[in-house]
Amino acid sequence: MHExxxxxxxxxxxxxxxxxxxxxxPVPSAHPEAELWFGAHPADPARLRxxxxxxxxxxxxxxxxxxxxxxxAPAFGGRLPFLLKILAxxxxxxxxxxxSAEQARAGxxxxxxxxxxxxxxxxxxxxxxxxxxxVVALERFEALAGFREPRRTVALLHALGVPELIPYAELxxxxxxxxxxxxxxxxxxxxxxxxxxxxxxxxxxGCVHYLKQSDDESASAPKEFVAEARTVLELAEGYPGDxxxxxxxxxxxxxxEPGQGLYLxxxxxxxxxxxxxxxxxxxxxxxxxxxLTPKHVDVPELLRVLDFEPLEVPIVAPEPLGDGAxxxxxxxxxxxxxxxxxxxxxxxxxxxxxGPGIILCxxxxxxxxxxxxxxxIAPGGAAWVSxxxxxVRARADADAAQVFCACVHDx
Length: 411
Hints:
Elements: E1 2-5, E2 7-9, H1 18-23, E3 35-38, E4 47-50, E5 53-56, H2 57-63, H3 65-69, E6 82-89, E7 95-97, H4 101-113, E8 133-137, E9 141-147, H5 150-159, H6 166-174, H7 178-189, H8 193-214, H9 226-238, H10 243-247, E10 251-256, E11 261-264, E12 270-282, E13 288-291, H11 299-305, E14 315-316, E15 319-322, E16 325-327, E17 336-342, E18 349-352, E19 357-363, E20 367-370, E21 373-376, E22 382-385, E23 392-395, E24 401-407
Antiparallel strand pairs: 1-4, 1-22, 2-3, 3-6, 4-5, 6-12, 7-13, 8-11, 8-12, 9-10, 9-12, 11-14, 15-16, 16-17, 17-24, 18-23, 19-22, 19-24, 20-21, 20-23
């Protein structure tokens, strides 16, 4: 068991306060801080504290995968199969989806054959892996995720009272299924700029009018789609003239309360809007973007990977496991995530029965014990547990603490 120092990533949508405050650093930070990575991803591996020096977790795992990963090493090519993060979104992330494993392999091979450099901004596939992901809210977390049930979307389009939206509502109403959603999304995301420049302002006016009506205290005032209308206006302010603003009308608008999770499998269109959370995913950097970003957008490739089946709101409720532990079950074989609420004066709790795993602190100053060794971690701090390490137990100090434990599902 060794201390693990996360790699700080700065993106424009990040926060100047959230990660700095969580980690006990001065606020505001000099630059927007978006993610703190704990893993062995080649783009930015975390650092292990070993014998007074910092060592890349990626290099340590590569040097002896059997020692660090144990029996799971062969199944994942000798690589740690998950990436753990703390994510802080002050502004919306791009409208995006991730490929399946088969799609990732094919896309990676195709771009290699086309000699697209791995670091090219035009590259879609940077590895051969899929990227299922789970985010657990540390505070209220807002997101768009998965295509809404079509009949509710038809109701939304009518509720906005925009005559120009009626043909689109009728199109989806005549075919309220995945094929209808595919047709409408494809139509909107590929609208010529001149048509978009005419339609989008009408939609925004409709959202403003709807919200004004909703502020009316009368019982008949519309309330059902307030969050959706506000989100469209906010996205349009940040990304004027972007077709992704229209696409947002088709997606589930989700609010996670602290402790709730959101799981996204391959092909689910989504955009995180704001909030702070712990995120875990398969160790991949494959993203297909459809809008709401200055980065590379490849609509044909996005359409190739999207799953247009209407999605029930994919919230993962925490599953009580006893002793202040909560699980977040998902079908992903690369990772498993648990949350532990540690209370002062309580007996130490077993966090992990053996590695490979990462233990991340998000509140308090808990102590971790492995055999005779103890390690204290602070918020934003973590520990790496190799396969050669035995069970790790944790206890709170004078104050309550919160830790997350990430490990491989197929251990």
